[in-house]
Amino acid sequence: MQVTELLAEGLKREYRVVLPAAELDAKANERLAEMKDKVRLNGFRPGKVPVAHLKRMYGKSVLAEVIDQAVNDANSKIVEENGFKLALQPKVELPQDEEAVKEVIEGKADLSYTVGLEVLPKIELGDFKSIALDKPVLAVTDEEVGEMVNRIAEGNRPYAAKEDVAANGDRVTVSFVGTLDGEKFEGGSGEDVQVVIGSNTFIPGFEEQLIGIKADETRTVNVTFPENYQAANLAGKAASFEVTAQMVEVPSEMTLDDEFAKTLGMDSLDALKEQVKSRIAQEHNAQSRAKVKRKLLDALDGLHQFEVPPTLAEQEFEGIWNSVTTEMEQQKRSFEDEGTTEEAARADYKKIADRRVRLGLVLAEIGEKNNIQVSEDEVTRAVVERARQFPGQEQQVWEFYRQNAQALASLRAPIFEEKVVDFLIELAKVNEVPVTREELYAEDEADKAA
Q: Dihedrals φ, ψ of 309, to 5°?
């Protein structure tokens, strides 16, 4: 085998490899000799088929298999001898000229091909003990617990049928058909929808116009969608709804006591409050960790600046860009609506893609150097948790992940990342900072970009 380096530019390498015809022919003869004891041909006793006869019958197909294996072995040898870690699979370019290919297959000419490699950079890890992180902490207050319990109670408040017209606080069961400029629109119709007047859960102005309605009455409700409405095609637009009331109900009295808690499956009101407090604490802790992780990734990005494999960065960018443009098309928004241009947006998202790839490589290197691994039990628990998200299809989901290595890797990756983050937080200097709820849940521009 003869190897000539053609390119060594950044993280890209290219080599010309020549595999002599004599070597390929010798390997093909070895393979044919192995076949002699296995092949059954009419007119020959088992194990007595001449190699020359096998070569006439199977020579070309065997040589093609040998060439495929030889190319893989040659590429692996180049990678091993140079100590490369590959970012992607080698890109092999075999001869395209039909006559040249024919001569190689017939064993009359050496095989000459080029192989392109994109390698991972050598990463010098920084001093993680030098990282200082502020961890926002927020204790759960009795007021928070009380507000949550009250919301739970309101969501479970009983209602009784009412013969009179609807008033503020009443619940009205309605069916409606919405139109824009006289035309029905997607998502504008509903059947047996319960509306609590004054709850502010519907489009502004919708609930108030139901005051005074009675069962079996139909009326037109005119509203204007908010400018920041999630469906961009409806934002700021005026719509009309033909609304028919099927039932009007008045809220019944309800007492927050142990009996109420028991209707929710709890032993007592105190037990309900403890569960609510625990849930709020989990939400605070998750939000706090998300902010600490963001600061940790910023610190890692500052400690590790190196060239990232261009193809990996491009693939990451394409994934981000496709997601962004698809969402903008669905919302019928343009870059001008976002206060930027397509060129500027591309530049910004390329920076984000580079950062993601760089941080991914750093986290992988940290995990490898510190023997951080994801156990099979952890992956299995992740598969079970994912399957539970699809009631009635658990078995299909389970089989999908167990038979799809790439899908399984998509579950393993975030577990690995969180374990590396835990490892780094243990090494960093973490300073707990008391914050308000508004500060803890505030979303800054960096969080949005992340």
A: -55, 120
Q: Where are the domains of the chain?
A: 2-118, 158-253, 260-449
What's the average model confidence in pLDDT over 73-99? 92
CATH of 2-118, one of 1.10.10.1590, 3.30.70.1050, 3.90.700.10, 3.20.20.70: 3.30.70.1050
| pLDDT surpassing 70 at residue 283 | yes
Q: Which helix (H) or strand (E) holds 149?
A: helix 142-155
Indicate if the pLDDT at residue 229 is higher than 90.
Answer: no
Q: Is 137 helix (H, G, I), strand (E, B) or coil?
A: strand
pLDDT band at 107 (very low <50, low <70, confident <90, very high): confident
Phi-psi region of 67 (alpha: psi -120 to 50; beta: other; left: phi over 0): alpha
More confident residue, 373 or 27: 373
DSSP state of 142: H
Q: Are 172 and 195 in contact (CB under 8 A)?
A: yes
Sign of torsion over alpha carbons 167, 170, 174, 177: positive
How many Å is the maximal CA-CA distance in the chain?
102
CATH of domain 158-253: 3.10.50.40
Q: Across 76-131, where does the E strand assignment appear?
A: 91-93, 111-118
Domain 260-449 grouped into CATH 3.40.50.620: no
Q: Which helix (H) or strand (E) holds 51?
A: helix 51-82
Instruction: Specify the pLDDT at position 96.
Output: 85
Q: How far apart are CA 105 and CA 97, in angstroms?
A: 12
